[in-house]
Amino acid sequence: MFSNDVWLAWMKRYRAYILCLMVILSIFIAVLRFWGEWKYFFGMLIGQLFFGQAVQSYLYGKYISFGGGGVTVESSPCSRLVAFIVAFIGYLVMFLFNGYPWS
User: Fold this and answer.
1) Is the Cβ–Cβ distance between 51 and 23 less than 8 Å?
2) Confidence of residue 38 (pLDDT cuts 50, 70, 90)
């Protein structure tokens, strides 16, 4: 199992590749999933960008913003990690979004 320092060092080293992969996959999956049905495309893509920028802020050690609030750089590592986990889960939910079942 990785120690905390090794995991953070790995994420910092490959952060640009992780973010590029997230952006490319977001656009690719969104286009494939909503081809011909553009009703939810832009909303889903904006949701992914919203949560993706929070993930990017964590990886680069910057201010993590969520709507009207956020987590500062001086906050505890635990609160920054919780914000990252929430942002990443939000990103995954938007990534797997396939429209509403009742529409």
Assistant:
1) no
2) confident
